[in-house]
Amino acid sequence: MTETPSTCPYCGIGCGVLIEHDGQRITGVRGDPDHPANAGRLCTKGATLHLTAADSVQRQTRLLAPMQRTRRGNAPHTVDWDSALDNAAERLAAIHQRDGADAIGVYVSGQLLTEDYYVFNKLVKGLLGTNHIDTNSRLCMSSAVAGYKATLGADAPPCSYEDFAHADTVFITGSNLAWAHPILMRRLEDARRARPQQKWIVADPRRTETAALADLHLALKPGSDVALYHGLLHLLLAQGLTDAAYIAAHTTGFEALAERVRAFPPAETARLTGLAEADLRTAARWFGESPATLSLYCQGLNQSASGTDKNAALINLHLATGQIGRPGAGPFSLTGQPNAMGGREVGGLANLLSAHRDLANPAHRAEVARLWGVPSVPTTPGRTAMEMFQAAADGAVKALWIVCTNPAQSLPDQAMVRRALERAEFVIVQEAFATTATCAYADLLLPATTWGEKNGTVTNSERRISRVRPAVPPAGQARHDWAIATDLARRLAARIAPERIALFPYTTPESIWNEHRDSTRGRDLDITGLSYARLEAQGPQQWPCPEGAAAGRSRLYADGVFPTADGRARFADVAPSPLAEAPDAEYPFSLLTGRLRDQWHGMSRTGLLGRLYGHEGLPAIDLAPADLARLGLQDGDLVRVASRRGAIVLPARASEGLPPGQAFLPMHWGQEVLSGQDAQGQPLTGVNALTTPAFCPTSKQPELKHAAVAIAPVQLPWRLSALAWLPAEQALAVREQLRPLLAAFGWASLLPFGREPDAQGRVGLVLRGAAATPVDGARLAPARALLGLDGPEVLRYQDAAARQDRALRVQRDADGRTQLQAFWLAGDTGGEAWLRQLLEADTPLPGPAHLLLAPGELARALVGEAATPASPQVCTCFNVREDAIRHTLAGCAGSPEERLAALTATLRCGSNCGSCIPALRGLVRCVAAPPQAPGIAPPPRQRQIADSFQTEATGPTGLP
Q1: Which Gene3D superfamilies match (predicted)?
Q2: Is residue 51, in this structure, part of any structural domain at all?
Q3: Which residue, 315, 333, 351, sits at the end of a domain?
Q4: Mean pLDDT rounded to a whole number for the chain
Q5: Which long-range contacts (CB under 8 A, 24 or more apart) does 776-784 make?
Q6: What is the mean pLDDT of residues 7-23?
Q7: DSSP alpha helices (H): ranges in 357-458?
Q8: The domain containing residue 922 runs over which residues?
């Protein structure tokens, strides 16, 4: 086996990974101890990357050859690459000549490499002659970009991860760091351990795992961020904690802002934000008196119709106190996607040009035209993400080329998005996975390479460029995104502008990167001192790193000089804006969206693994216990959640972390895992059926974080629960075949489960559904067959009068003992919990299998102790559940840190990726320690305790 260093394809931390492989197959992954971003650590998502690259997964989920449809709705058929690319070039050229360049829209992704992005940007702006290229980074970081540019003058986060260790106060706002960027949370915990005086302030409407670890939690009202920051600035001024000398020497515009914040005294700020005046005073004092204050922020600020103002108002606090350009101080936006930064660097958005040049600047347009060797680049800003799809829905955009993203799940207002995909004349989807929702709308599918196969660079949150290296050849006929774009660009140029074929001479990603590098000379992100060779020899490097520099700059603006016309930063005099959609009598709840700990975006990759559903295995909406009671609901009851755009049905769940009037729903749940239909029989399409298309007028980033909704109980009394072990090489394909069945229910969910593949090479699937009346048995028959519940080894019980249908698939081992392999409960699903216990226990049944078909106490008597529902999983890496943790803690005395250390040593939870550490700390706080004599250390727990609760053990550096 060989190890190839590369970079994780998930969040913007940019963790280094070592890919274990034999040249043809990826067999393992571990964190790269030499990478400066993560020093060997990986979260649950990164630590399971090799499982998503398994042969069985690739064969069932990857797009392995070009495919096209002759008619929408038909199944696609395989074509060769030349036919596919010629078809694309012909169709795009025809639309270009008939309707003009602006009739073509290209929508790309923050998961592309910088080299991929560069070619697409040049293709659209240099060949097609339009600026209609945008990226899903518009949904991610565009408000942070606009906020930096409005205040500091350039899209350049001024901080580095090393600042975590130097900060005395950390202000986390608009980020659940513990779940969204878990490796950075580990670094922050290390910093506080080394500097016990470090204080954390967390501003978040919910009491998240991050907020629970804070010294001060500011549970502000949704949308009141600008009021909070203005109120803090009012207090900083009143307490004499601003830096007048810094303001005078390095900024402009403070007088107007100071006048505005006069209107935000503590009493008024408390009214607007819902916070206590005492907490506001404490936060201002900690922020202003701290020798170094670091702000960390992400989508809670960005994904808002006033996202630019929120970013700028936060940066105001740093400029007013001089908390910038010093170790441990500064406003630090945390990037959502792995290469959102790289896409911005090459100008891969509708309003940008290469090397952070502005499309609106004539000099910048002329520079890019000279660099590319074209007479000009188009002057009119392109349509941003929401504008592009709205134009397609309205018929103005005729062709959509979608690359490495899944807008049929991820964009807000799904009804509009799907109308756009249906109305567009020609839709190209360039994708690695054939299972995304958007693939169903494609006229042409182009197979692309993915992690473990790609070659190029990415840039992380701290401006650090890392190499992405291939470990194995492309799967099937997949090609690199830059190579597909280059080949199609040449064919397209031959049809619409033959003289521009020479714009695309690229044969390697390095040749593209070198052209990009040359475009940065003299710019704020100058990387002329870098090369592939230097990145190979010296590892990841930060920009700026101009020619001749010994190293990149880890911290910006230390000299107080900013990339503005006068060299001064600008205070942003912004007014608080109301929510784009405030709750009212008809839609009284504020719906907040966010992340799950172990899932990524639309789950096209992480959603393939049952183990990553162990922490959160059922789509549900969280409500305050008081709201649950007021609505007459119990945990697990189904509710209809409706906004002005759509509705979905799913279970409700009580959450102590929410105040009354708010609800929380993870962003990940799309039609791939959650479906159903409304009263009119129209399909429901996941979380983004609810979200609003309203966007920030400056950044054009949509308000994905908040929508006004109504929540009401829904009566769907007929239920189905089916769970089955299936061979690993079949399970995901079976999942795809089962998906159409979801439309038969008023609510349905289809997910993997288990620790795949297990010792017997199996993967679990769980299908749940609910309907107002029983679903016709003939319609369900294919599902039973796919789950292996129609063969001779199946035991079945039916009672038509009682509308009951139960079935079991059992298997005899070599000793003749019977084990449960699958079950089907239709009508009455009350036995699901204890049957699942038997299924996952993988042990012989304690009695005759046919008795499990019986209702009531007879079946329960058979299973005995196994009838206890499984305790929630806390640690994904080692499958450690809450009951094991509580049992172990009950015998661990000492300080909280000593108890946590004993827990980790005994059960190993928290010892690998660390994502579960916040939850472990919470359990340490709530589980009482045993009495301990003074001066006597707690006795170590024995390994037998761990063995009695854990179902498997793994090595210290990775997963099995």
Answers
A1: 2.40.40.20, 3.40.50.740, ADC-like domains, BFD-like [2Fe-2S]-binding domain, Dimethylsulfoxide Reductase, domain 2
A2: no
A3: 333
A4: 93
A5: 777/805, 779/741, 779/744, 780/720, 780/741, 780/744, 780/826, 782/737, 782/741, 783/722, 783/738, 783/741, 784/722, 784/824
A6: 97
A7: 362-372, 385-394, 407-410, 414-423
A8: 874-949
- The whole-number pLDDT of residue 835 equals 87
> Would the CA dihedral through 165, 171, 345, 120 be positive or negative?
positive
Structure tokens at 98: 């008939």
Residues 393 and 507 in one domain: yes
How many other CB atoms sit within 10 Å of the CB of residue 932? 13
∠ Cα 353 359 362 (to 5°): 115
Query: Which residues on neighbouring strands pair with residue 515, listed in sequence order?
Result: none
**Sign (positive/negative) of CA torsion 838, 839, 844, 847?**
positive
957 confidence band (pLDDT: 50, 70, 90): very low
600 and 694 part of one domain: yes
pLDDT (mean) for 809-829? 88
Inter-residue contact 451 to 49 (CB < 8 Å): yes
Nearest to 733 by CA among 11, 48, 58: 58
Q: What is the mean pLDDT of residues 302-310?
A: 97
Total Cβ atoms within 10 A of residue 362: 10
Looking at the DSSP assignment, which residues form a beta bridge with residue 812? 818
Q: How many CB atoms lie within 10 A of CB 708?
A: 20
Confidence (pTM): 0.94
632-to-10, 302, 654, 659, 711 alpha-carbon distances in Å: 40, 35, 12, 17, 12
Tokens of 913: 């990726």
Q: What's residue 802's pLDDT?
A: 77
- Count the Cβ atoms, other than its own, within 10 Å of residue 868: 12
The answer to whether the beta carbons of residues 541 and 465 sit under 8 Å apart is yes
Question: Quick check: 574 pLDDT over 90?
Answer: yes
Q: Are residues 135 and 150 located together in one domain of the fold? A: no
DSSP structural state of residue 431: E
Residue 629 sits in a domain of what CATH number? 2.40.40.20
- 541: its two tokens: 């490097």
Q: Are 51 and 500 in contact (CB under 8 A)?
A: no
Which pLDDT does position 474 carry in this prediction?
Answer: 98
pLDDT digit string (tens) for 729-766? Answer: 999 999 999 999 998 899 999 999 998 778 788 999 99
The Cα 921–Cα 212 span in angstroms is 9
- Cα torsion angle, 218, 221, 223, 229, sign: negative
CA–CA gap between residue 780 and residue 799 (Å, rounded): 16
Q: Tell how strand 444-447 and strand 426-431 pair up.
A: parallel
The tokens describing 291, both together, are 């020798």
Q: Give residue for tokens 């900013």.
A: 562
- Where is 247: in which H helix or E strand? helix 244-250
Report which residue type is found at 475.
Answer: A
Residues in Cβ contact with 868 at an 8 Å cutoff, skipping those fewer than 6 apart: 834, 837
Residue for token pair 């895992």: 673
- Coil, strand or helix at 641: strand
Mean pLDDT (whole number) for 292-309: 97
* Strands across the sheet containing 399-403: 77-78, 67-68, 444-447, 426-431, 399-403, 104-108, 133-135
The answer to whether residues 858 and 887 belong to one domain is no
pLDDT of 760 reads 84
Rounded percentage of the chain residues whose pLDDT exceeds 90: 83
Does 946 have pLDDT greater than 80?
A: no
Q: How long, in residues, is the chain?
A: 960
Same domain, 640 and 787: no
- Evaluate whether 420 touches 395 at the Cβ level (below 8 Å): no
- What is the pLDDT confidence band of residue 931, given thresholds at 50, 70 and 90? confident
- Rounded-to-integer distance, Cα 611 and Cα 541, Å: 34
Q: What is the pLDDT of residue 862?
A: 61
Give, for 818, the enclosing helix (H) or strand (E).
Answer: strand 818-827
Q: How many CB atoms lie within 10 A of CB 2?
A: 11
Spatial CA neighbour of 462 closest among 554, 536, 337: 554
For Cα atoms 267, 273, 277, give the angle at the middle one, nearest 5 degrees: 35
